[in-house]
């Protein structure tokens, strides 16, 4: 083995790990965003959900998820097949350490699950949510991941890759999948009390902490460089280094385009600059570019992001009209714009086709929404997924976690 | 003795404090309060949905005074707190039976 290869192996592995750490940090971004957009009485619970789901996702993906997604025919539990040395330890030599690949993949699972927590915030039972997280991260997500990035056929019927389906970093595979699971949960869960009046009115329930929501968005924006940049899967050659740089540039451009578009649309529609819409706009721009950040020009990336930013505002308003209560806009940002991202791929990438993108999107949605709906229904029948009306009024912080995020009138028992 | 209770716009507090200081008022109590008047609050938009702000933030200034100071104090507050727009607030004047300075035990006018 020559020294150049060893250097490439080391650099690609290092790059993978750093990008994985950036994506892991997105869990913090989701936590802050969601904690900022709920009412203060539901802060502790949403934080508990966010950090617990991250740990559940990592554990379930280790137990069986990774193997379902990438194991092909050789299913092994607990990462049994993972060897320490990818260069000489495997039948087909890899250019990076196999455990680095696992680490990079596992943080994506957590991202998909994080999307769910925001949409069902302020009214779902903590333990029902975590039970769902076990199934989504251990089975539902790995199955559709196997059909897409894993290259497996969909129940032996068709193979998405052959049909011209392409999803670079997961607009559909991660984001739309998370949103589909969230949508199924929200439909079975119902809206927060007071959100929709009996006369058809839509009431605002303002978030408690916009500095926190803004910080969360900044963290997500930063983490996305790992999400998209790492999905190049290599950086140790001129070609891959160039690709990584383009992906970083386009990811940043799309987020900017999304924010500007959403801010302007909100100003036009509502008369004032709605910060929360602007934050959703930046995330929509990021989701829109995630399906293909390596082939557009910087201008195209900005415009694609801008389209996401416009679409997300109208999607949020439309979902409210349909009485689908999503406190943080997760279904619009990740689901509706995730679909847009998939459909934008063929404009700049000849390897993808519209029919392939549509079939891929339909496959992911039908699978994730359908199985999620079944799992949520079972959980609803067994343990219930919604807290009582009184608990909801008092705030789930006290009923689910027994502690407030900002306790004011407490004294120690003497 | 009288107790003047003025409910004013929060951003006028410094000017009211200065105006009262100039006419020789030696102490006030200030509270952050919320309330509504004839406009009954106002509506705002959050993510495209309306919500009503029923209670607007105001500052309540309480001043205990001897009778002869009341007129000038009311004048000072009125002048300092006025913007001419809706929501400038109100001044209430009520009878004060007694006052006690806790440290010395002085009562009545001496305690003010």
Task: Please tell me about this protein's structure.
- The complex is a heterodimer of chains A (414) and B (112).
- Chain A has 414 residues and is mainly α.
- Helices cover 67% and strands 0% of the residues of chain A.
- Chain A has 13 helices and no strands.
- Chain A has helices at residues 3-37, 43-70, 98-119, 126-147, 171-189, 210-229, 238-270, 275-290, 298-321, 330-348, 354-382, 389-394, 396-401.
- Chain A is globular.
- The mean pLDDT of chain A is 93.
- Chain B has 112 residues and is of the alpha+beta class.
- Chain B has helices at 13-22, 70-81; strands at residues 2-8, 29-35, 42-46, 49-53, 56-65, 89-95.
- Chain B is elongated and about 60 Å long.
- The interface between A and B is medium-sized, with 18 and 8 residues.
List the defining traits of the structure above.
heterodimer; A: 414 residues; mainly alpha; 67% helix; 0% strand; B: 112 residues; four-stranded antiparallel β-sheet; 2 helices; elongated
Arithmetic mean of pLDDT of chain A: 93
Number of helices of chain B: 2
SSE series of chain A: HHHHHHHHHHHHH
Helix coverage percent of residues of chain A? 55-70%
Chain pair sharing the greatest interface: A-B, 18 and 8 residues
Q: What structural class do you assign from the helix and strand content of chain B?
A: alpha+beta
Number of strands of chain B: 6
Oligomer: heterodimer
Helix coverage percent of chain B = 10-25%
Q: What portion of the residues of chain B fall into strands of 2 or more residues?
A: 35-45%
Q: Termini of chain B, distance in Å?
A: 9 Å
The low-confidence parts of chain A are none
Shape of chain B: elongated
């Amino acid at each position: 083995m020559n020294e150049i290869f060893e250097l490439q192996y080391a650099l690609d592995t290092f790059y993978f790990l750093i990008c994985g750490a950036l994506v892991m940090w997105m869990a913090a971004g989701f936590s802050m965003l969601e904690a900022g957009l709920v009412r203060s009485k539901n802060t502790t619970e949403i934080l508990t959900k966010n950090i617990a789901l991250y740990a559940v996702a990592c554990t379930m993906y280790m137990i069986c998820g990774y193997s379902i997604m990438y194991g092909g025919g050789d299913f092994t539990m607990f990462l049994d097949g993972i060897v320490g040395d990818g260069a000489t330890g495997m039948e087909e030599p890899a250019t990076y350490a196999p455990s680095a690949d696992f680490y990079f993949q596992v943080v994506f699972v957590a991202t998909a699950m994080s999307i769910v927590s925001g949409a069902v915030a302020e009214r779902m039972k903590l333990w029902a949510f975590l039970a769902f997280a076990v199934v989504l991260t251990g089975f539902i997500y790995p199955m559709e991941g196997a059909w897409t990035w894993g290259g497996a056929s969909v129940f032996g019927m068709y193979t998405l890759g052959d049909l011209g389906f392409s999803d670079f970093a997961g607009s559909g595979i991660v984001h739309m999948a998370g949103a589909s699971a969230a949508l199924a949960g929200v439909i079975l869960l119902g809206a927060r009390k007071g959100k929709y009046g009996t006369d058809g009115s839509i009431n605002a329930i303002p978030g408690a902490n916009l500095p926190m929501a803004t910080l969360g968005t900044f963290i997500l924006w930063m983490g996305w460089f790992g999400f998209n940049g790492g999905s190049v899967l290599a950086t140790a050659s001129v070609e891959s280094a160039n690709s990584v740089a383009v992906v970083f540039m386009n990811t940043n451009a799309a987020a900017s385009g999304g924010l500007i578009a959403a801010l302007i649309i909100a100003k036009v529609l509502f008369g004032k600059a709605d910060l929360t819409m602007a934050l959703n706009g930046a995330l929509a721009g990021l989701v829109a570019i995630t399906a293909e950040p390596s082939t557009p020009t910087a201008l195209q990336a900005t415009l694609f992001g801008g389209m996401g930013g416009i679409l997300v505002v109208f999607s949020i308003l439309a979902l409210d009209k349909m009485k689908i209560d999503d406190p943080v806009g997760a279904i619009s940002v990740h689901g509706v714009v995730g679909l847009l991202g998939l459909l934008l791929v063929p404009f700049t990438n000849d390897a993808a086709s519209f029919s392939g993108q549509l079939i891929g999107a339909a496959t992911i949605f039908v699978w994730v929404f359908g199985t999620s709906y079944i799992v949520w229904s079972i959980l609803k029948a067994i343990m219930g997924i919604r807290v009582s009306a009184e608990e909801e009024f008092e705030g789930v912080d006290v009923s689910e976690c027994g502690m407030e995020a900002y306790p004011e009138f407490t004294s120690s028992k003497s | 003795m009288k107790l003047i209770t003025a409910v004013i716009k929060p951003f006028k507090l410094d000017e009211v404090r200065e105006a009262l200081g100039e006419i020789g008022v030696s102490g006030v109590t200030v509270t952050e309060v919320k309330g509504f008047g004839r406009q009954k609050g106002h509506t705002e938009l959050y993510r495209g949905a309306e919500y009503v702000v029923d209670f607007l933030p105001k500052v309540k200034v309480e001043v205990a005074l001897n009778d002869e100071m009341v007129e000038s104090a009311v004048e000072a507050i009125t002048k300092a707190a006025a913007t001419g727009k809706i929501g400038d607030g109100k001044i209430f004047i009520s009878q004060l039976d007694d006052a006690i300075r806790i440290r010395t035990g002085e009562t009545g006018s001496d305690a003010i």
